[in-house]
Amino acid sequence: MLGDTSMQTAKHILSTTLILTILVSGLPIFSPEDANRDSKVNIEDVILRIQDFAQTADNPSAFAINLENAVSA
Hints:
Elements: H1 2-25, H2 43-55, H3 60-72
């Protein structure tokens, strides 16, 4: 009987820990538009995205990603 109680307690603790881990992993830590990660999206972020865009114009795969980032900023 004592073993069942401790197993249930361990199961509840593990379930709660797993649920919290899944929930926390989905929280946004930063905005993708915030290029310099200063918690503000402003003209400096746009300038940084445009610079990244200009530097990767030679590489087609990076060009597409940076184009998307520049437009979203």
